[in-house]
Amino acid sequence: MPWQTATNVLIPSLSPVEFPAVFLNTATGVFQLCGQPAGAIPTPNAWHDLDLKSIGVPATALAVDIRGFLIITSGTGTSIADLAVAFRSPASGASVYTPGSYVNQTISVLPTGGSRTNGTAIAPCVNGVTQWAWLRGDNGKGEWPDQPIPPYPTGASYGLNLSVAQIFMP
Q1: How many CA atoms, within 13 angstroms, populate the side-chain half-sphere of residue 107?
Q2: Is 140 helix (H, G, I), strand (E, B) or coil?
Q3: Fewer CB atoms < 10 Å away: N or C end of the chain?
Q4: pTM, whole model, 2 decimals?
Q5: Cis peptide bond upstream of 145, omega within 30
Q6: CA of residue 23 relative to chain centroid, distance
Q7: Shortest CA distance to 18 belongs to which of 168, 167, 165?
Q8: For residues 31 and 121, is the Cβ–Cβ distance under 8 A?
């Protein structure tokens, strides 16, 4: 496994929530990257670029510490709702790393419950960009990781609220 040496760590002088990376809410359809509207909620179980330069991540950054919440609100017909997120270097290539090798996960096993879990990951960067993927669905209903889901409140609602907390520099 290749490793890099980071000799400097940049930390925010403000709260890390001032540096949003990914925000999505399947119940409302809201999707933002770096605090800006980003159109439709992206396809699950697929890699997506996350250009972090607009929130101050230098093009020379080796990696970022991304952290925040993975959120599930169970619907009336939910059995086992599952949400996961993965990160990789844009240089990884499609065959090297699959979204199924996620680093953060939360599961809701109660039909009227939900789950709110903290997650953190060191995401490698190339030119201020990392890649991310999300997987979601009800394992008990065959929706995991990317099949169609019923709208909330029948199906579960899934959310991510992730921010950059540290930047690792050469």
Answers
A1: 8
A2: helix
A3: N
A4: 0.94
A5: yes
A6: 8
A7: 165
A8: no
The pLDDT tens digits of the residues spanning 38-78 come to 999 999 999 999 999 999 999 999 999 999 999 999 988 88
* Domains of the chain (ranges, CATH numbers): 8-169 (2.60.120)
Taking the C-alpha atoms of residue 104 and residue 27, their distance in angstroms, rounded to an integer, is 21
Spatial distance between the Cα atoms of 121 and 83, rounded to a whole number of angstroms = 15
With contact defined as beta carbons under 8 Å apart, do 83 and 24 qualify? no
pLDDT in tens, 5-47: 999 999 998 887 789 999 999 999 999 999 999 999 999 999 9
Reference 137, options 150, 124, 125; nearest CA is 150
- What is the C-alpha separation between 83 and 40, in angstroms, rounded? 18
Question: Which residues are CB-neighbours of 94 under 8 A, at least 6 positions away?
Answer: 47
Distance CA 145, CA 170 (A): 36
